[in-house]
Amino acid sequence: MEFTNTTKVFTCIQCGKCTGGCPESGRTPLNVRLIVRKNQFGAQVKNSHLWYCTSCGTCTVRCPRDVKPSEVIFDMRSTLVESGDISTSIQKALENTFLQKNPWGRARSKRAEWAEKSGVAIKHISDTLEKRLLLSCCVHAYDPRCHVIPVNISKLLTYSGIEFGILGEEECCCGNEIRRIGEKGLFEELREENISNFNRYDVREILTLSPHCMNTLKKEYNLPKLKVYHYTQLLWDMIREGVVKIGKDYKKRVAYHDPCFLGKQNGIFEEPRYILKSIEGLELLEFSRSRENSLCCEGGGGRMFYEVEVQYERNAKIRVEEAYELGVQTIVVSCPFCLMTLEEQAVEKGIEVKDISEILVEVLE
Amino acid sequence: MSYGLIVADVRKGTFDERNLDLIGFCNILEVDAYILLPKGDYDVDLSYFKRVIRLNMEEADFLNPLNIGAIVEKTIEKFGRPSIIIFSSSSSGMEMASYLAGYFNVPIITDINGLSKEEKVFFKSCYSEKVYAHLRLKNEGFSVLTIRSGSFKQHANKKCEVTETEEMDPPTLSEKRSFLGYVEEEKQEIDITKANFLISIGRGVGKKEEIAGYEELATLLKATLSASRPVIDKQWLPKERQVGTSGKTVKPKVYLAMGISGAFQHIAGMKDSECIIAVNKDPEAPIFQYAHYGIIGDMHKVRDKLKELLKGL
Amino acid sequence: MNIVVFTKRVAAAQEEELKIVRDGEDLDISKLPFKVNDWDNYAVEEAVKTVEKFGGQVTAISLGDKESDEVLRRSIAMGAKEGLLIRKDDPIFDPAVRANVAFNFIKKHNIVFDAIFTGVQAEDDQFGVFGGYLAALLKIPFASMVIGIDEWKTDHVVVKRELEGGMSERVRIGIPCVLSIQTGINEPRYVSIMGIRKASQVERKVFDGSEYMENIRSSIELLRWSYPPKKEGAKLLSADIDSACRELLEILKEKGVYQ
Q1: Burial environment of residue B234 by CB neighbours within 10 A (0 to 12, 13 to 18, 19 or more)
Q2: What local confidence, expressed as pLDDT, does residue C165 receive?
């Protein structure tokens, strides 16, 4: 496929910082610097190479010239999307999202099924006073393993007397992944639907459970009046202010895995660590690659729906192996994508992977 | 007395078992069963029928939907009007039935799988088996019906004391469609999305060395081997064999999941299979929530026992 | 070459629990999302692929309410030249009536075609009748369960039909004809939202469906809806491996995947 170039590629000095930090480069055919170079010339790029990108954002964060190489890749993907030149699994995810507003095509009416498991009364946003919206990701909504996250957060909020509401079956995919897959038109539609929901119910702040949703709502929605934040931020506030009290210890060796969309792309590194450090008995270890350098779990940017051509050792496996070496008993995450990818590998090593809310619920008074 | 005209479901000289459902259907409705059969030496118990009409024509012409209208016209001329004309819901049955109904511009109900005799109401599935529609025919004349296989065969239990067999010459055959031949099974690359029967293995397989045993089982059962992501990740099977959101979405007739716990991403790729059979050590494995049948046990033991039984057969 | 494709907008029910309301009289599909009938999607793709190869144009026709315009836009985005809506706001359940309306429409507007493509069946009513019925009314040849078009000549086509048990047959059929297209014949292309927006600029003609209904009456009365017998969770086979395996083989035989 031939691609037209995007505006900023000409400022690229081919320094290679992008490729240097890319979690896929070297092991897969993805070479970000080369793609940008070829894009400058409008030269041929092998379509499949574009789909290795996990949209972790490392290249864009590191770029000294603000070329935003990951955005160049998304633009090129959108050329493929427009011409229909995409794999059937990606196509299915897009069609599903168009139809049911989630990439698995599960019934929209079952979007809030998790709420039944929470054991607390959960209100629709329209029935609340403070208009604080708890927004779950499609993964939380449909993966039974991840139901526990909105369930835990709802419980914590309810017991602490913090009012919140949900959209229920009106909730709709945020489009973060869709935009990164390159389906710009669909992203616009999802954004429009979400914004109209926010307006209709006079939403004032949005508590996101996935860093992916938070990222796009903050940066790609243009919602200047809305406060958008991640649940680890709220949880830390609650602990710091004594709204919730930790009453039990957690005697385990724990490592925190920074999600790309929370950490390097949005600078939230401390709150999850503060939470963990405030738990008695918990020994917090660090991965050799953490914070800005955190190794991407490879769940994002459409990779959840696309099996790449080349088989290679998964980052999640590398991550789990390091945890094993470190003697880590629990890997803690704060992103449903990371939970899915890491847990798949960790089972075999006998290491547990937990969302930070799962630990918190265990140690509360 | 009016009769039910069965258009026989035949193929390559075989009288299909699906015909029993058509006979059973006539028996429930208490109408005499007449059957239309082409030339050929079919293995069929003719005593099920009040009348057997042997058409002096080849099977392929008999199965050509463009001929069925004239055949039925001729039948009516000779034996009077039937109350219903019935086909099985097979590929050719459906093709002929819809064309025949249009030929006479009469009502048609397809894929009937139940009925309420008193009300003369037929049931058919809609929205892929989510609901049944209860339908009643209001017309005066005859109607065309197709019957789902397996629905009424237990009622094919009545034999007629006298079966009349008549020969009938076919009408002028249509030249607008002709049968060219059956397509030989082409050796194709393995495409798990097209397989009827998948044996899918998961993490429980444990070691690479175990894979060969499952390949052997698949060969014995004429099934296709597929896998969940952990097996593919370890490169024990090529990625074309991966079932799941990031692999392929499959809908085989039978999906035999062995050692697959049922991660969400995997379930999304196979949950629409017609029949799911799960083998897993862990009775709590999520896969059992989606399965129609389950065996709680060691997958390797099940594999070896199946192989033993199959080889012993 | 002109190919007419009939395409239907249907409720996407696969993931949903369908609600039967008013004592079985109605099916509440108001909350379901709607989409193009899966089989028709393959039919449109096959029509577009065919004219891309042999020249000519594709006309998409939909019989349904005004929202059915959506599937016409989609067809145009896939490559159809024009879209015609036979607008009928109350759904028509009876396939014989649908076929008669389509027949009257084709006759009245003298629509010229070499072939009409339809999907084998619709996801909602699952009748699988429309194509064959329409062909017979038009007195033109018909083939259903088409999973391959091998040859396209000026006066005939050779198609492959799917049969039972992994078998298929090849038939030669004169033009003009009606072909009912089976899923799997191709891989329908992705239609992007931008593509649909562009297609919206092509005018779709709307016709009043009631004008083609004269003297057509349905002879099928839809009395009520019911749920099929409830599927219970996984039926566990014997705990003893030997008996469990024997039972398993029986199930495989019953399902027709192993003899």
Answers
A1: middle
A2: 67
Q: Is the pLDDT of residue C256 over 90?
A: no
**Residue A98 at interface with chain B, using a CB cutoff of 8 Å:** no
Q: In the CATH scheme, what is the code of domain C2-212?
A: 3.40.50.620
pLDDT for B221-238, tens place per residue? 999 999 998 898 888 998
pLDDT of residue B140: 87
pLDDT of residue C90: 94
Residues of chain A neighbouring C190 (CB-CB closer than 8 A): 81, 84, 86, 91, 94-95
The residue type found at A150 is: P
| B97 in Cβ contact with B5 (< 8 Å) | no
For C146, the closest chain B residue by CA position comes to B91
Residues of B in contact with A353 (CB under 8 A): none
Among the listed residues A95, A105, A165, the one whose alpha carbon sits nearest the alpha carbon of residue A138: A105
CA distance B95 to C135: 11
Say yes or no for a CB contact (<8 Å) between C225 and B306. no
Strand order in the sheet with C235-236: B224-227, B197-201, B254-258, B275-280, B293-296, C235-236
pLDDT for B17: 87
| Residue B304 half-sphere exposure toward CB, CA atoms < 13 A | 8
* Cα dihedral sign, B179-B180-B182-B183: negative
**Which chains lie within 8 Å of chain A at 3 or more CB pairs, if any?**
B, C
Domains and their CATH numbers in chain A: 7-83 (no CATH), 89-236 (3.40.50), 245-363 (3.40.50.10700)
- Measured CA to CA, the distance from residue A21 to residue A364 in angstroms comes to 39
DSSP H helical ranges for C29-186: 38-54, 69-78, 95-108, 130-138
Low-confidence ranges of chain A (pLDDT < 70): 1-7
- Exposure letters A229-245 (e unless 16+ CB within 10 A, then b): bbbbbbbbebbeeebbe
pLDDT at B188: 62
Split at pLDDT 50, 70, 90, the class of C255 is confident
* Residue B212 backbone dihedrals phi, psi, to 5 degrees: -55, -40
Amino acid at C248: L
Domain borders along chain B are 3-168, 192-312
The CATH architecture one would assign to domain B3-168 is 3-Layer(aba) Sandwich (3.40)
Same CATH fold, B192-312 and B3-168?
Answer: yes
Q: Indicate whether C75 pLDDT > 80.
A: yes
Q: For chain C, what are the domain ranges?
A: 2-212, 234-259
- Report the alpha-carbon distance of residue A67 to residue A62 in Å, rounded: 10
pLDDT at position B187 over 80: no
CA distance B256 to B273: 10
Q: Write the class of the CATH domain B192-312.
A: alpha beta
What span, in angstroms and rounded, lies between the C-alpha atoms of C244 and A214? 50
A28 forms bridges with which residues in the sheet? Answer: A25
pLDDT tens, C20-64?
A: 999 999 999 988 999 999 999 999 999 999 999 999 999 999 999
More confident residue, A155 or C228: A155
Instruction: Give A30-38's long-range contacts (Cβ < 8 A, gap of 24+).
Output: A32/A59, A32/A69, A32/A70, A32/A73, A33/A69, A35/A69, A35/A72, A35/A73, A35/A76, A36/A9, A36/A12, A36/A67, A36/A69, A36/A72, A37/A12
Shortest Cα–Cα distance, B114 to chain C (Å)? 10
Beta carbons of A200 and A172 less than 8 angstroms apart: no
Which string of b and e fits C102-139 if b means at least 16 CB within 10 Å? bbbbbeeeeeebbbbbbbbbbbbbbbbbbbbbbbbbbe
pLDDT of residue A6: 65
Angle at B199 between CA B195 and CA B201, to 5 degrees: 130
